[in-house]
Every structure is written in C-alpha cells, then in structure tokens.
Design goal:
By secondary structure, the chain is α/β, with parallel strands linked by helices. It is 49% helix and 21% strand. Helix 7 crosses helix 8 and helix 8 packs antiparallel against helix 9. The radius of gyration is 32 Å and the shape is elongated. It comes from Algoriphagus boritolerans DSM 17298 = JCM 18970. Pfam families: HATPase_c, HisKA, Response_reg.
C-alpha cells in the first residue's frame, strides 16, 4: 500500500473529475467515478480512505450513494459536495449517509485538502482502534483459556500430594515425621487456596456478566457445605438466614465470589483466644435489591486501615493469612454489578460488611 491517502471522488461532470485529479494527484492517490454505480464498484474493489460525492447526480444522489456504500464498505469517511442549500438533503445525508462533513461548490482547493486530511486522520484512528479491539478480544479469550488450564494443571498435582500425605500419616507413628506431613498439608492447603483466589479474581474482574435468576438459599447451602469441608468450623457458631420471597437476577459466579471472600475473611481473621467465635450471614431480598451482610466477632480492623482494605494486595493486619485479594475482589464484583459495599469494624470487637446488589436485566450489560 502507498503512503498516500486514497480518495474516491464521484461526480457526473467529467470536467470536475479531471480538475479534481489534476489539482490533488500530487498529494493523494485519486480514484474517480462518473456515476454512483462505478463509484460503488471502486469502493468495493479498492482500499479507499475518504470518499467525496456530489449531491446532485442523475440516478442516485450523493446521499443515496453513501447509503448504498455503507452496506458494502462502511469504513471510508464520507464528504458531500453541495451546490445549493437544501436542509432536507443535509438531514438525509447525516441520518442515512453518515456524512462526516459538507463542502459547498464550487470547492476551494485548500479547503478540500484540509478536509481530506482531517477525514483520513479519523479513518486511520478508527482502523487502529478496530485492530486493537480485535487483539484485546483475542487476548481476553486466550487469558480465559490460560487461567482455567493453569488452575487445572496446578490443582491436580496438589490434590495428589495432599492425598498421599494423608495416607502416609495413617501409617507413620513417628511424631517428627507426622509434623513434617502436617507442614506439607499446610503448604498445599495455602497453595490450593491461592489458586482458588486467582480463579475468583479472574471471575470478579475479567469475565463478562452472565445474568441468571438467583436462588440464594440453594447457593448458600452449597457454599456452606464447601466451607465446612475447607475450614474447621467446630469452634464457630455460624448463623445463616436467607429471606427471599421474590425473584432476583444477577451474576451467580460473582455472587459466589462475594460470599466466598467475605466468609473466608470472617473465619481467618478471628481472635485466637477470647471465648465463642461466631459468624452471621444474612441475605434479604427486598424490592429490587439483595442485601448481603456478613458479621463476625474477630480481630476487627483499625481505623487507619479501613479506607485501604478494598485496595489490591492491601492487608489490615500483620497476621500471616490471606493474600490481600479478598476484599478487592468483593469490591470489584460489587461495583461491576452496580452495587455498593459498606464496612463497619471495631478492633477486638469484630467486623460487619454489607453488600447491596441491584436486580439486573440481561439487557443492562
């Protein structure tokens, strides 16, 4: 392709075509057509950046030509030449022909040059944006495949190590050896938890919404079963209440991300001593909103950290648990669904996090 801007000019007067070519051929690569039919053929076969058409032509008008051209090649930027004032034609050109600008006849050479250059700038910016969008879509698709493939490949060996460790502990009576296996179990558990966090991170920040009807009681039952397998809740009093009498529509995967991270934090950031540990999970569906509240009597969050805990990799404690991702993922999921999140906390008293989510329609996202 040449470096010159490619310009197609359609006019039913041959003298105008010759004058246009002679005046602008040094600056641009010029294509000319004596009627709309020839112009459509050139627009279909050649790479064209800017199209200029006279409005008053036999057969198709300039506006009608542009309307037809959009169907076969919508990319070139369109300029209409008008030799008279006709507001109806101008409106038609804007609405049907998607015209970039108008130039009065007889045209001025410098005006034409500037208009072509400005129109070409728009053409090339749009093309660059389109190419980048395609690359981003490809990257997004590849990242989806990569994340899920990576998680699968990592978790397989982890589960094997964990299973072998559990079997070995049943057969070994040496307390020192048992301690080593406990260390292996702890390490594999942390890595497995991190992989889950990475998957949740991707679901909450990178994957588009999938809106379905939400049955909170079913989701909570499933999640609580998973939590009891994952965490030792024997020393916790867990109170769960779900109040839903009306349909609610949202992204189920992101709701699970929210529940997973809020509940996980409530378990992990507990006081080591100090009596009965408890966690309360309440979900109320009222009108067009779902209100999810998770409350605990854990270590709490100091006031100086409360504004930062929703930031990526932020931690509000020196306690060696967590990845610094949990509340960030909650915030991202909530904000993407148009909801809001509130935090109340007192040191050594506990924390309450309340999430309010609107019911969504498929057409909203």
């Amino acid at each position: 392709m040449s470096d010159k801007i490619h310009v197609l000019y359609i006019d039913d007067e041959d003298n105008n075509l010759k004058s246009f070519r002679a005046s602008l051929r040094k600056d641009f690569k010029i294509f000319t057509a004596i009627d709309a039919e020839e112009g459509l053929r050139i627009a279909k076969e050649e790479e064209i950046h800017v199209v200029i058409a006279d409005q008053r032509m036999p057969g198709l008008t300039g506006t009608e030509f542009f309307e037809q051209m959009i169907k076969i090649n919508p990319d070139p930027i369109r300029i209409l030449l008008t030799g008279y004032s006709d507001i109806a034609s101008v409106i038609d050109a804007i609405n049907k022909g998607e015209v970039y600008r108008f130039i009065d006849k007889p045209w001025n050479i410098e005006q034409i040059k500037n208009s072509i250059k400005n129109a070409a700038d728009i053409f090339f910016m749009r093309r660059e944006l389109k190419e980048k969008t395609i690359k981003l879509q490809k990257l997004h698709s590849e990242m989806n495949q990569f994340v899920y493939s990576l998680s699968h490949e990592l978790r397989g060996p982890l589960m094997s190590i964990s299973g072998i460790s559990k079997l070995a502990k049943l057969e070994i009576s040496d307390p020192n050896a048992l301690e080593y296996f406990e260390m292996i179990d702890t390490a594999t558990g942390k890595l497995d938890d991190f992989i889950y966090k990475m998957l949740d991170f991707y679901r909450s920040t990178k994957i588009d919404h999938k809106i379905t009807e939400i049955h909170f009681q079913e989701i909570v039952n499933q999640q609580m079963e998973a939590y009891r397998e994952k965490f030792d809740l024997t020393h916790f009093k867990v109170d769960v209440q779900v109040n839903q009498q009306i349909p609610f529509f949202c992204d189920e995967a992101k709701i699970r991300v929210i529940l997973n991270n809020l509940f996980s934090n409530a378990v992990q950031f507990q006081k080591e001593h100090g009596g009965q540990k408890w966690i309360s999970l309440t979900i109320d569906v009222v009108e067009e909103n779902a209100i999810i509240a998770v409350e605990d009597n854990g270590i709490g969050i100091e006031e100086r950290y409360r504004a930062e805990v929703f930031n990526l990799f932020a931690r509000a404690t020196q306690k060696n648990v967590g990845t610094g991702l949990g509340l960030y993922m909650v915030k991202e999921a909530v904000e993407q669904m148009g909801g809001k999140i509130d935090l109340e906390s007192e040191v050594n008293e506990g924390t309450t996090i309340t999430v309010t989510l609107p019911s969504l329609n498929k057409g909203e996202f």
